[in-house]
Fold Aromatic ring-hydroxylating dioxygenase subunit alpha.
Amino acid sequence: MLNKLPSSISALLDARADGHSLPAGLYTREDVFEADIDVFFHKHWICVGLDCDVPEPGDATVIEIGKTSLILLRDDDGELRVLHNVCRHRGSRLLDPGRTIVSKLVCPYHTWTYELTGELSYAPHMGKDFDKDCRGLKPVTFKSIGGLIYVCLSDNPPEDIALLERTMVERLAPYGIRNAKIAHQTDVIEDGNWKLTMENNRECYHCSANHPELCVSFVDLDFGFDPETLSPEDREQAEEHFRLYEERTRAWEADGYPSAAVEQLSDCATNFRTQRLIIAGAGESQTHDATAASSRLLGHMTRKDLGDTHLWGHNSWNHFMGDHAVVAVVIPLSAGKTLVRTKWLVHEEAVEGIDYDLDKLTDVWIATTDQDADLVARSHAGTLDPAYQPGPYSRFSETNLDKFATWYIDRMRAHGY
């Protein structure tokens, strides 16, 4: 645990009122940011990437989380590895951030050389009696869950990731995410705290006013509404929508596609939610006309009418559709800056310009992410204003934000803050 400052973090945690957003300092203070990294990005499971980030032996990519640098790679036997990017000689970084191809991991400082398993194979001028066996690169605890890579930097990883693993291995199997191809990637740096980024993603209260492209295929009613404010016609439409949900969910599950909501959002360490959502309009994909962007479907999918299998965790959100997937990972950079890394996945043999159009594949979520970045920046600027006071969450449209804030407080206290 980090040392508490005189104006303690615990006082901020105590000040949070049920049903309200967090006190400003929990979004803005640098000491809280350091505590967040310690608790939520070192001691909890976080999503950092994909099996298909490193499709071939020798492929490697570096991911940086706070002061920690990780190497995700595939070794010569085709096995995934996650290693600390710290030479065991004097601590130099081995690889720079981003993707590369390596045959061995060679420290640029003194040429200590490691196999792709992490084993130290060459340490010049260290003497004949030098024991290389105890100087391999430090491994990182990780799981590949249906092709999504989760890591935990703690020596005691939370065991309740088991529900996420059981649920998503089955749900992701038809999509073939492990062997998919990354068709496109964007890195957007938002001018806001990571918790504001996650809060923004967990509600669609703002969608109709801010995401015209997404709302072609995404149904904002799915995440709550106040029935008293709807016209009789809109209320009837909403009731029909939820009747359709029950019907579709039963039909999908009868066909062997798990669809009902599964969530672990409170009294837990590993925070997640998944559900198969109906896609509006043409019903095929999250594109500008809701039709599939790729004629080559993912994995061994044969249907385009299976909706959107959404999954979120405390640093990621994902949408898996018949033709493509959108995977977003959130990495805090400072109290007021957050990296949102988004990847669009297609079938491994899909060819751009033949099987899919890249603009159609990406334009909805590129627009949505840019729009969200603006909203998060506005929210963060507001938390810095002396006039900010935590406001009430909608009990209809923002219940998941209240759960997230409550979970955040609980986890901080569980780790001594």
